[in-house]
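debug: dumping io for the single-chain case to check the tokenizer round-trip. Nothing else runs in this session.
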Amino acid sequence: MKKRIAVLGSTGSIGRQTLEVADNLGLEVVGLAAGSNSFLLAEQIAKYRPAWAVLANGKPFSSPAFTQLAYGNKAVAHYARQHGADIVVAAISGVAGLVPTWNAVLSGATVALANKESLVTAGSLLTQAAAQSGATILPVDSEHSAIWQCLYGVKPDQVSRLILTASGGPFRDWPLARLQQVGLADALAHPTWNMGNKLTVDSATLMNKGLEVIEAHWLFGTPYENIEVVVHPESIVHSLVELVDGALLAQLSLPDMRLPIQLALTYPERCPTPWPRLCLWQAEKLTFSAPRVADFPCLRLATEAGKAGRSYPIVLNAANEVAVQAFMIGELSFLDIPRLVANALEQHVATDVSDLQAILAVDNEARESAHLLRAKLIR
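debug: decoded output
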């Protein structure tokens, strides 16, 4: 029997690529959820004929009789739990994906996780909920998928450290003085990956890699001191695992998100793909270097917030989302992004968060504070 999938965030970059993979594998799409792109969602409904679809924020439209169409974030959260799927792909961007991901985990389903903010803000609660419900969380991010693959058959006590690779973004060789002149077009010109705008900016600041450090901590139960980041501009080695004897295991492939998506959808099986494959002699060289933490402080800020725990990762993520949005609309400079995040963390009084409502409350308060900090930086 072919697998049934529901795609949360179906009109985004990961969602669209997930549906392309589903086409290749012949999977049944039973549910779709989108943000505001009503035109594309309507096209997807017509093509895949899902049992249900949800538009969170966009303009209402008429739906064919074969699809139950609902609207609003509450409807997304509802269908994330009442999905009727074997696999739920959690690909809603940002903390907006937290509640739907939480509900998918509570359903006991296999969750292909592309929404790293869920683990960043609620890692402890989400992993505990998965253990209680019997849900399986499978990584979709290329780096975490690579580590997951390298860990096949490896005993936990044989692992020395996890090494996440980072492309370094478009500014890895820019001097600090030049970073003061970065515009949005510069930040969106990623040299190797084709991603959504917010994620591309996060890659440029190295915040994305910092969030991935926190995500790796929760996915694999690895202490922060045993997780490292290395800059690898070619984006061929997607991450590495060092074993206790010094051996390094790595996963290599072309930078193509369809590969980790497909593995999450077919696990524990592997299936052929029609997409281009890595030719090692054409790759010519693979280079690695240490990240420039002093010039790209978001990586340090994220790692420190993860280590501090409690409510700090929630504030980190909320402040970053506010700062990146302000940068994308021209209110803040590129270097203002880490300034705002650092200020938000510095003024925050940490609290313990024991449930989802507490996390959402901290997130809301952090956003309000971040907007005040944004206003000061604009002046």
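debug: round-trip ok. Residues 140-256+274-301 form one domain.
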